[in-house]
Amino acid sequence: RNQQTLAFAKHYSVEVLTCHPADPASKGGVESSVKIAKADLVPKDTNLRNTYASFAELEAACAALMDQVNAREHRITRRRPVDMLAEEAASLHRVPDTAHTLAYGVGRRVPENTPMVSFENAQYSVPAHLLGAEVFARFHGTGPDAQVVIVHVGAGGPVEVARHALARPG
């Protein structure tokens, strides 16, 4: 099992259910959810910048779609998800106040004496005020335009602190 997925699940107190290889019945629910999102929410060219004027507009579209989908009777249970949620609410728990860091990248400690971090066998600079702090590095993009993005999670939440072209290993 993927250790990052398990850490994510533990952080949010959820169980990750996996489907069995070559078993269409066990993966049908996931595929159906993706199909709904693709058909009803995401524009066909998948470039959201031209379709939604702001992130708030995208959030509003997501909320409207969820209201619509959750009010429909489910084909198998013959119940509306909104009604089932009301019954299951007592079993739910709050989402943790801190986000899981998986989306930020791979954790790296900035040394106490130099504001550089190692990522994929190359060195990248970070602001000097982060000496001794933990940061997260990840790739962004592919090919000649690929970059390394470095994020620090402080009291105000996650902040991008550096962005670099890929450095040569060594």
Automatic annotation (TrEMBL):
This is Putative transposase. One of its GO terms (biological process) is DNA integration. It comes from Arthrobacter globiformis (strain ATCC 8010 / DSM 20124 / JCM 1332 / NBRC 12137 / NCIMB 8907 / NRRL B-2979 / 168). Residues 1-89 form the Integrase catalytic domain. It comes from the Bacteria. PROSITE patterns: INTEGRASE.
